[in-house]
Give the backbone structure.
Amino acid sequence: MDYIVVYITTPDYETAKKLADYLVNNKLAACVNIVDKIYSIYFWQGNIERDNESLMIIKTRADLFEKLEEEVKKNHPYSVPEIIAMPIIKGSNDYLKWIDETVNR
């Protein structure tokens, strides 16, 4: 089984909490950590933008990425939300087993 960590930025903490609850309740994520108050500088529509955001750090299985992405896009206020995944190369067997037991099969 392949496992991933997904990063998603949101405009604020409340949006991140709402989206995290949705993903965990729908068994698309085993765990979501929210880092409030990050500062983002990015290029968007011809301008350099600077915004305060929140960062979601999501642990799940790779086979759930497409469904997770679809649900985030439906429930996220940004027209192009950051949704990026990185593989978990190694992890505690107990923790990875817990992910399997927690998310959709």
In short: The two ends are 11 Å apart (CA to CA). The chain has a mean pLDDT of 96. The chain has one domain: 3-102.
